[in-house]
Amino acid sequence: MKFPPIRFLFTAAFCVTTASQAPASDSADMIPVEFKQLSESVWMHTSYKHYEKFGPVPANGLIVAEGTQSILIDSGWTDAQTDAILDWARDDLKQPVTRAYFTHAHLDKMGGVGAVKSRDIETYALELSNELALANGLQPAENDIHLSVGQDVLSVGLVDLFFPGGAHSHDNLVAYVAKDSLLYGGCMVRSAASKRLGNTQDADVLHWDTAIGLVKQRFPQVDIVVPGHGAPAGPELLERTQVLVKRHVD
Fold first, then answer.
1. pTM of the prediction?
2. Which residue, 8, 86, 111, 229, has fewest beta-carbon neighbours within 10 Å?
3. Contact 190, 149 (CB under 8 A)
4. Number of domains in the chain
5. Do residues 27 and 35 touch, judged by C-beta distance below 8 A?
C-alpha cells in the first residue's frame, strides 16, 4: 500500500499542522517540516537548511510509532525544527517521542539534540558519534551505543540499529524496521537522483562499498529504503550507491 506525501496543511489526522512550523533562523527554516507516512508504523520527517551554493537542502529522519509512544531517528537541522517534529509526534500523531537515536555526528542528524534533551527524552548515539559531536561543535547524546562493525544489532522496540563501519562518515548507523521491511540508510545511502557521493569530507570512501555490502547481508529483505537526503525508493538505492562509490574510487 502506498502512502501519499504529507506536505502542507490538511484536516486529516496525520497532517502537518501549525505546530510543525518552526520559527525561522534562516530562509530554509521558513519551510515547514514535512511528514510522509511510509508504512503503518513509520513516518519520515524532512527539514531544510539553506546553503548559498545549493539553496534549501532537505534532510530526512524517522518517527517509528509503537503503542502509545514513538522513537525518533535523527533530528532536524536545528532545535526549532526538532521542536516542531517532537510537537507533531505528541499533538498530531498522539504518540510522543520517548527515545531518540542519532545515526552520525553531522548537523543534519544531530543539530537538534538540544531540543530533544530539553524535554528529558532519552538520547543515544554511537560512542564515536558522541565524541565527534563534541569535536564538531554539536551536542552529544546522553548515552553511548557500543556496536562492533558488521556484527552486533541493537534492537529497540521495532527498530534494529546496525553499524556497518565507515561510509559517508566513520560513525554512520543504519536503522531497520523488520515488520515493514524498511531500511533507513541515512546519509550512507544516496537517492536515485544523486549523480555523485556528495560531501565526502568525513567519509571512509574505501570502506563504503563494503559497508553497503554488510547492510545487504544483515538485512536481505528490504522493500523500502530511506536515504538521508532525497526521496525513498526500493533496494535499488543500495546498488545505486555502490555504483557511485566505485565510480568515485576509480
1. 0.89
2. 8
3. no
4. 1
5. no
Dump pLDDT digits (tens) for 120-144: 999 999 999 999 999 999 999 999 9
If you search the block for the grid coordinates 536515504, which residue do you land on? Answer: 227
Q: Residue 137 sits in a domain of what CATH number?
A: 3.60.15.10
DSSP per residue, the chain:
----EE-SB-SSTTSB-GGG-PPPSSGGGGSPPEEEE-SSSEEEEEEEEEETTTEEEEEEEEEEEETTEEEEES--SSHHHHHHHHHHHHHTSS--EEEEEESSSSHHHHTTHHHHHHTT-EEEEEHHHHHHHHHTT-PPPSEEE---TTT-EEEETTEEEE----SSSTT--EEEEGGGTEEEEETTS--TT-SS----TT--HHHHHHHHHHHHHH----SEEEESSS--B-THHHHHHHHHHHHHH-
What is the per-residue pLDDT across 76-100, written as a single tens digit (0 to 9) for each? 999 999 999 999 999 999 999 999 9
Give dist(CA 102, CA 247) in Å, integer. 29
> What pLDDT is stored for residue 250 in this prediction?
86
Q: What is the layout of strands, in order, in the sheet containing 97-102?
A: 5-6, 34-37, 42-51, 55-66, 69-73, 97-102, 122-126, 143-145
pLDDT digits (tens, 9 = 90+) for 192-224: 999 999 999 999 999 999 999 999 999 999 999
Residue 200 CA from chain centroid, whole number: 18
